[in-house]
Every structure is written in structure tokens, then in C-alpha cells.
Amino acid sequence: MLSAKATCNSHGQDSSYFLGWEEYEKNPYHHLHNPNGIIQMGLAENQLSFDLLESWLKNNPDSAAINHHSIFKQLALFQDYHGLPAFKNALVEFMSEIRENKVTFDPNNLVLTAGATSANETLMFCLADPGEAFLLPTPYYPGFDRDLKWRTGAEIVPIHCSSSNGFRITKSALQEAYQQAQNQNLKVKGVLVTNPSNPLGTSLSLHELELLIDFISSKNIHLISDEIYSGTVYCSPGFVSIMEVLKNKGLMNTEVWKRVHIVYSLSKDLGLPGFRIGAIYSNDDIVVSAATKMSSFGLISSQTQYLLSEMLSDKKFTKNYLRENRKRLKQRHEMMEKALQKAGIRCLKSNAGLFSWVDMRHLLSSPTFEGEMELWKKIVYDVGLNISPGSSCHCSEPGWFRVCFANMSKETLVLAMQRLSSFVDSMTKESNQSRRRQPLIGNPRRLKSLPKWVFFTIVHYRKVGEERYVVRCDDQLVSNNKRVDFL
Amino acid sequence: MAIEIVQPSVAGLSKIAVSETHGENSPYFAGWKAYDENPYHEMHNPSGVIQMGLAENQVSFDLVEKYLESNQEAASWGKKVSGFKENALFQDYHGLLSFRKAMASFMEQVRGGKARFDPERVVLTAGATAANELLTFVLADPGDALLVPTPYYPGFDRDLRWRTGVEIVPIHCESSNNFQVTPQALESAYDHATSMNMKVRGVLITNPSNPLGATIQRKVLEEILDFVTRKNIHLVSDEIYSGSVFHSNEFVSIAEVLESRNYKDSERCHIVYSLSKDLGLPGFRVGTVYSYNDQVVTTARRMSSFTLISSQTQLLLASMLSDNEFTEKYIKINRERLRKRYETIVAGLKKAGIECLKGNAGLFCWMNLSPYLSENTKSGELEIWKTIMEEVRLNISPGSSCRCSEAGWFRVCFANMSEETLEVALSRLHEFMDRRRRDRNLLSVL
């Protein structure tokens, strides 16, 4: 009765990603009410600098626009998909400021969208026909499987990156991915990179950026640079935008320059995911024109555009915010890195983002993805931390996990690290003591190996009364591994 | 119907990016350009083009403004320290519960309590534009067809077809029965689609209708429901003008019909709503898909990730729409003011010798200029439209842009301007028609 898109074939959401959420929702940590609950470390949110936003709002009460009748009416009627000019001007200046003014952006080339989720999908609609492919370096943000492929019909072919060189993009990996696409009869339309990377937390090196430019030039394809974490770069080597590299190579106003597109958002840098503020920046007039019309399907509320235009035009505020936010992120990152180190756990050396890419290969019972799942289950159920397994990010090596550090208080992070440390201690003791390795510890009822259906696509979970059930892609409602029928 | 020529990829772009299916090169938009270049202003440009092609509701802003004035705290983050943070972090695609409840209750009030809405079935989208596209993605595959009665809102050509690859097959309606949908027209459209090897997935109606400005009669709704049930297809009812019905007892929502049938076969029905027309807030991007089908609700909700409503806006409107005193008063007064405007324009047009379809809802009237066409064709229609744009300096929407099968009909908006401006527009039209008659009389005696 419904379209092919409505059924779960082209979806590919990783089950583990959602199971961790489900467990967290059932038993969320609260320092007073539920101190033994699960701590959420799978959510890439920036909660470190709200006080700065709140104090700005206190000093600028009119920005909410409900006090002045004429402004309210104007905004309420404003649905022009070109966007509020004052907001676009302020946004491009903010983007420039993040890049230390080494590049400037023309507001006429900026298209506003309801979040980066919408921006990425819109760009796909503009650049790829159904069945065509984009190459993405692994590991990558799990949401891309939905955002880039679901309604567009486009395909993703991975560019495999490995820990042997810090997961950097190499020329051979690019070529291999391209070849792989050809073997599958997929026409490659472009490469999409996230810079700084989610989940790695690293910014692309100059070498990688140049490699990418050479690659897309030679193949005559596009490059999308998702730079939504650009304002979270907290230490050297600093952030180099693809636009800067193009400029320095004298490639402005060339054909390749027109094939590079940037995606931005205020969800991570400013911590405002609820406000749905995203943008596409392109030097190709046709792309800008098509994307602008498509933005009709996901415009930013004019009320929100106004608020942010006021905030971002306050240069004193933006300067201070960017600096202070970076400082706090750096402190948090260092705190977590040190604590992990003490527990004998290493992280990928990172300089950006709201998370660390953590190496737990040495804790795997076997160097396989089954081993990774097993470890992950222990960490969720026994240690009480919801972290994201590398397999959910399509990492080609098992044992890596993304651990977020900016979505909780300092005290909660300390507790999380203590729990992890105790867990590692007990694991070490155990492996020393027992001859025959017991792969599972703790409550056997909770830790019986997850049934096969977990590896089906889990669509979401649904609340019925006070109970939460996981809904499988074939619409079966399941609770504790038992199928439940509802009328 | 425009002939679509599939474009080859231009400089590595998708076919969608270079196609014309967004429809912005139609005459519908040429009128806009004329207005943009020479907009009417009471003081600064009294001879400029008056915009009568924009279906906006500006007649009841004072009510919303008054509400905000007395409820500033409730409508913003107030004194609660955590209020802003919580709101700014909230991106759950289920939407703010308080807002969903408020929307469901508002939709009930608009229907005079004659139908109930479950907040769990309310899926939020950034406007009805997004809701219609999203539903199309969920209900149909590329190449499939949706049947839509003509005349219809020109934006559907883009919203339902552009990125989805779905086709619209018109259900032809005629002035002889006031453009109502008939069972024969439904069957005919279905057969036509089938003959072109298109799988029909559903019928999409707008009730009250844009551009007709009239509600669909209960009998017709029942016939449409019977038809979609027989063919085992979907029914989408776009009810974004439901709060703009001049007399509350004249609107029957598909929700009422379903309730009276105890929701039998209701899982093929879906309603689209928005606050852009009834509340006059198009800039805030507030739309909803309300479905009686669980799988559609589930899927639509996940798809809404691409088009969420700003949590800041959800918060503001949650407080406003849950204030029953405000909403009741607003709905009642808004109706009265729209009715008055409608009566003014119809009377004014009549004085000018122009008849309209008998309407009872919406922000526009459906005007009949067919007696005045030089030839009863689309080009005759566009000729008079151009004249009205250039000589009378009014931007109105020609029926051909709404795929009307009869020439000479025009949609004329009346709620997006002051009463004074409306009078100016009417007097200009009156003068024009007088001049025309005099000129014709003169010609006939020469």
C-alpha cells in the first residue's frame, strides 16, 4: 500500500546505534534520582556554552521578536526562500570569522535549510540521480545512510580509512573506492567529507584537502565538505577550509571551484539543534538556484532567522563565544583523554568535535565485529555508558568507539570515566585470574546474546502506555525479545 | 499540461536540478515580477500594481499581537533558566508534546468539535509544502500517479512531482456543476492514468478548495471516499483553509466522515494542515501530516527529520494554541472578518458586471471573466490577464495556471491587503469594465 521508500529496504540504520538509545531511555542517569543509570555518551551535542547564549538573550530581550508588533507581523508573513537578508549576511560573516577571515562568503551563494540534515539531502537531490554514487571516507556519521540515500535513491561507496595512518584519506583509498563503484556499475558523482570529521574529531590535513581537489579535478566530480563542526576546533593544527585551499591554489572561478560545496549548521558550534539552522554554500549558480527552490520543503522559521541574525551580528558576542567555546571544549577533551589514558585506553589524537575516537581493540575478546558488539553490550548494560560502536559508523576495523564529552556536566563525565576505569580494572583482573575466558559477565538474563533480529534494521521505538517497545522494520513490536501483538 | 523533456545532466548536476518541474517559469510568476517591479503603496505609489495573487491572511493579526502582548512570558523562555537550553536542544522528531496536543486541539476547535484528533498521530513538518511532498514520498513511487481535481493550487505541480517523480493526473471539474468532483470524473481520471500505464496511488483534494474558495459538500466527500475504497488507494485531504470557512456549519472535514463510519477503512486517509492560512503565520513554517495509518505516521515522522519545525516556534505556538479562550475567540472573529471581506469583493465585482463562483471559504474568490474573452481559449484568457495586469494594474491568478479546463476564470485574493486597498482595486476594476463597455458600444455604432 505504501511506497518502496516507506518500507525499510533502502534504509540501513544500524541497529546497535538505536539499541543503546533504547537502553538509555529506559534507564537514564540522573545524579540525584538515578545515579546508577546509563550515562548518555552517544549524543554529539554541545552543552558547554549555554550560559553565554543565555546571558546574551537576557541583554537582548527584543530578539525573540514578540514584543514589537511590526517586526512580528513582518516575520510572520516572511516566507521568501531567499531567506532573511540580515540573517544570511550575519551567517556568512560568522562562517568567515570561524575561518579566521581567510575566506569570505557571498550571501547570494548561501541557501538556508532546516538543519544540515536537510542541506545534505538537498545537495544530493541536486547533484546525483537515483542510482548514482557518492564516495565517503569511513568511519562516517551513521545518519548519512538516511540523509544521503533514503529519498534520493543515491548510493554511498566507502573510502576505507585505517588506523595505520590515523584514518587519513589516501590517494589509493580514493582510487580503490572509485574502482569499487565502477565494479558495481555505479556512476560516481562526487565525494563527501566531514571536516572536522565525525566521528574522528580531527580536521582534514592540507595534504588530504589537496588530494581531494586533485581527485575531483581528474574525475570531473563534485566535492561536498560538511563543515558543521568547524567552530569546534580547539587546538592545533587548526581548521583549514577547502575554500581556503582553492583560493591559495589560485583555483577561484574555475570549473573545479564550482564543484565544491559546503554544508554548515548552528547545531554543533552554537548548540542549537532544536532551531533547525542549516545552510548550503555553493559557487555554482545552478546549484544555488535549484537548492533555493528546494529549500521550500524545509525553510527555517523566520522567527528563528531573526533571533540568530541579531545574535550573530553582535560581533563582540561572536568573538567571545567562539574563543570561550573552544577553550571549554579543549578542557573537556583533555580531561577525558587523561582519564582514559589512566585506564589504559588510548584515543585517536584529535583537535576538534564533541567526541573522541577511542581505541578499545585491546579489550576485545576477539578482533572481530562480534567481539566489538560483545564489548559494547557490556559497556552499555554493565558499565552503564551509551557509546557508539565503530561498526555503526561503517569503520572497517573493529574495536573503535565514539565517545561524546560535551553533552553532560563535568561531574557526570568524571563519574563515567571512573566507571570505565573500574570496568577495565575488573577485566584485567579477570583475564589474569581465569584460564578459560568467560566472555560474558554480570547478569546473564540481560546479557544473553542478542537474538538475530537485532541485526535486522530497527526502525525506531514506540511508546505504548508506560512501556517502550522496539519496532522492527517488519513492523513487529518487540519487548525483551518477545514479540507483542497490538490491535 | 506542459510537455516535459528530460534534460541531460548539465555539468554533472542531477536531472531534478535542471528540470523545469519547479514550475517557476509559468505565467503565474510573471505577474509577481510585475508586482515586484511596481508595487502599490497607498502614499508612495498609489498607481502601482495591487497584489491580489497572494493567498495570505492579514485580517486578524491584531488578535495574535494582543495575545502576545498579554502573554510574553508564556510565549518565550520566561524566567526559567533551563527553559532556553531545553528548548534549544530539543530536536526530537516526535515534536514538542505540548505543541502536538495544542495542534490537535486547535484542529478540533476549527471543526467545531465535530471530529477528534489524537496528538500521537500529528506529525510535524516545516509547512504544508513539506507535508504534501512528504506524504507523496510515502504513498507513491516515481512514475506513479496522484489524481487531483482541477482547478488546483499551482504549487502542487512542484510539491507533489518535482523531487518525488510522481505524476499528477487531473480530475476535470466543470463550471456547469460549480466545479464539484463527480464520480464520472473520478473514474475518467483513473482510466486515463491507467491507459498511460501509470499506477494510481491516491486522490488528493483540497477542502476548502484553493482556488475555488468553496467547501466540498458532504455527499461529494462520501463519493470520493467510496471511490478510493473501491480502488484500494489513498485519500489525502489538504485542509489548510479549514479555519477560513465563513460559516462554521458549512465545512465538513474528512475526519468527520471517517468518525461517522467508525473509522472503517480509515487507514487510507491522511489530512494535511498548516497555520499559514488560518493563523496568518506562513513565515513560521508550521505544517502537519495527520494520518489514520500507523505505518504512515511512523514513516512520515522519520522523514520529518528533513523538515522539522524550529523548537523556538513550537514553544511559542504551543502556549498560544492551548489557550482555549484565545483560540475560540480567534476562530470566530477571523471567520467573520473573512466573510465580510468576501461579501465586499463579490458585491464590488457584481457592480462591475463580473460574476463569481458562490464561495464560502478561503482567502480568495473565483471570478468568471469568460463572457469577456475575445476568444474562449487559454490565449484569450492570458490576453485579458495581461490587460488587467498592465492597464488595471492588478496581479490576479489566471485559471490556466491552476489547470482549469475552462478558460476565463481567475483567482482573486482579498485578505492580504487593507480594506481601503481592496476598495481601490474594486474601483479600478469597475472603471476598467465601464470603459470597456463604452468602447464596445462605441464600436458597435460606428
From TrEMBL, chain A:
Instruction: Please list the GO biological process terms of this entry.
Output: ethylene biosynthetic process; fruit ripening
In terms of InterPro entries, this protein maps to:
Aminotransferase_I/II_large (IPR004839), Ethylene_sulfur-biosynth (IPR050478), NHTrfase_class1_PyrdxlP-BS (IPR004838), PyrdxlP-dep_Trfase (IPR015424), PyrdxlP-dep_Trfase_major (IPR015421), PyrdxlP-dep_Trfase_small (IPR015422)
Supply the SUPFAM superfamilies for this chain: PLP-dependent transferases
Query: Which residue range or ranges hold the Aminotransferase class I/classII large domain?
Result: 39-420
- Name of the top EC class for this enzyme: lyase
- Which PROSITE patterns has this protein been placed in? AA_TRANSFER_CLASS_1
Q: Which Gene3D superfamilies match?
A: Aspartate Aminotransferase, domain 1, Type I PLP-dependent aspartate aminotransferase-like (Major domain)
For this chain, the family text in UniProt reads: Belongs to the class-I pyridoxal-phosphate-dependent aminotransferase family.
Protein name per its UniProtKB record: 1-aminocyclopropane-1-carboxylate synthase
Q: Which organism is it from?
A: Cynara cardunculus var. scolymus (Globe artichoke)
